[in-house]
Task: structure prediction
Amino acid sequence: MIKYTVIFSVEAKMDMALLEDYIRDDLKSPLTASNYMKELDDTIQELSMYAGSVAISTNDYIQLLYGPEARRINYKKMAIIFTVYKNYAYIKRVIPASLIL
Result:
């Protein structure tokens, strides 16, 4: 069984920081922000066990923006876009799923 190392792009880290700020500050819900971000991070870290088994996305929008090897999983209303290379899962973006055409 392959164990993948999960690596975040600068954009993915920024996406997550902005999401946390939005939930905490705009929605005025710091506890929800903390819990949501922990669960989101847990979901992403679970990719270390199965990233290579996620199908490559056939969505044209994802392929155009993130390359022909891009994959996607969801956490609630967020899409986690990543690629796999050797034993690495590169998290490209964490964006609202509604943005994907």
User: Anything to note?
Assistant: The chain has one domain: 5-99. The beta strands are 5-8, 71-75, 78-85, 88-96. The domain at 5-99 is CATH 3.30.2310.20 (YaeB-like fold). The chain has a mean pLDDT of 96.
